[in-house]
Amino acid sequence: AQLSCLARLLAAKNLTADFGSFPPDLLLFFHPSEVRAGTCREFYTRASRGNLDLLPRGSSRRTRLLRGALTCLGVRGSRLEPQQLGSLGALVCDLEPATIPASGPAVLDNLKLCPTLTGAQQDALNALLLTGDTAYGDPSSWDLRTLQDLGPLVLALNQTTLSLVAEAVREDFRRSIVAAYSSQGHSQREKSLILLRAFAAASASAASHPRLKRSADRCPSEPITADSIPLLSSEELDLCLSNDFLIENLEAVLEQPITSGALKILKKKVDEFYRSGIPEEQLKRLGMLSRLYTEQEISRWPVTSSDTLLALLNPSGGQWKDSQVQQLLSRYLSLGGSLTGPLLREIGGERLCNLQEEQIQQIPAEAIRTAGPLNISLCSQTKKEQLYRKAREAFAGLASTPGPYYCRIQPYLGGAPAEDLKDLANSGVAINMDLDTFLALNPEELKKLSVTDVKNLLGKNLSELKEAENEPLVVSWVKIQSQWELDHVLGIGLQGGLQEPTGTASPACPTTLASVTSTATATTS
């Protein structure tokens, strides 16, 4: 949201021409109309180096960015030339799967820039690799270096491709992942676990995994350490790992690449150690184990501190289910806890929507102010209105400066009443509301906005309204507007408004409340 507002400010001050001095992330928020034709290739080449995840996949901004790049580079079909690929960079990640085989091996370097690939894109990638006509050759000839050179693409390899890789090569790669795991960050660890599961599924026999030397009682003769745990089978882990060792070294153990089966055994051992319930200080240490607890078990946790709740919600422990988070928050609030800005940021807007209306009412306005932008698009209309009122209170100090105020209040406008939207429209400052925000407005409140209000709100993004003319929210608004005003005030080709009665002259200017009032006054005087 801050980058979007900064881009809007630069455009307002005509400072967008010198884009070479701006970071690539900021360029993602520039409007195509601000990109000069003579420098568009350089612009999109630089913008493609930005973090595309800042723009939600499928959003109007991201779609508009790709469309502008393709137009600039003269792309006409599925095939992309090497020079075009060089300029598109990570923007290729949003193209149709047919682009991959049509563009050939040159597209692989671009695909390495993609945080994720769709299922269809992965299928197309595997089909290209299976031809053997790439720099990597036939999968049956791959060695450890080849798998390492594939980089992030190895995450997209399917079982068909992996099964062609020699078993010894797969095992070498698996061991290299385990060796590097302890020094990796959270996101990279998640990818490593995905790889370990994929390579395990492709292995013909579990016997290929190395094991520590066993003694007569089936436990390793060497002492168990945290580092050796990934080399133990689930049976060995259950039989040989002591509860005392686990509790004393819990953080070090959870630092290892552990399969889901092994995690269940670790949870069982933790529960055996704390038979009367896990103390609050120990809840903070659970990490990824916490995600294995049921809603009923969570309902008994002594979560009284915001520090405990923040530790449990830390994304480094993996994904929670929404129902688990709901129970965790309910337990915290029932024990007298209060939701703060940092907590709201960890909870996220989507899960915030799962709170009961009474719980949302307990959120202090100060928490909204310090939480940063929250995505509340999945909330019910009632909850959107609750959160909007809190946001309006939180940012009331900025109300006299419409630009900064809009930047902060924008995520919550889905709950705004018409009178507040009119105030923004008539603030005298270019709001330039993006289409995604406009389409998220309350339909009933939007119907109360005039054609001029909508024009002022959208500003330079007005032309995009034509592209959304079939959206139900737009259709319902258009059908109650004067077609004459749609034609002469907006002038973007929207159809379906109210026609003037036959024989009635068109108004010389848009009808507004002020003009109606002045006419009525003149008639009565």
Automatic annotation (TrEMBL):
Q: Which GO terms describe its cellular component?
A: cell surface; membrane
Q: Where in the cell is it found?
A: Membrane
Query: Which PANTHER family does the record cross-reference, listed alphabetically?
Result: MESOTHELIN-LIKE PROTEIN, STEREOCILIN RELATED
UniProt keyword annotation of Signal present: yes
Q: What is this protein called?
A: MSLNL protein
**Matching InterPro entries:** Mesothelin, Stereocilin-rel
Name where it mostly resides.
Answer: membrane
Q: Which family does it belong to?
A: Belongs to the mesothelin family.
Tell me which UniProt keywords the record has, alphabetically: Cell adhesion, Glycoprotein, Membrane, Signal
Q: Name one GO biological process term.
A: cell-matrix adhesion
Q: Which Pfam families match?
A: Mesothelin
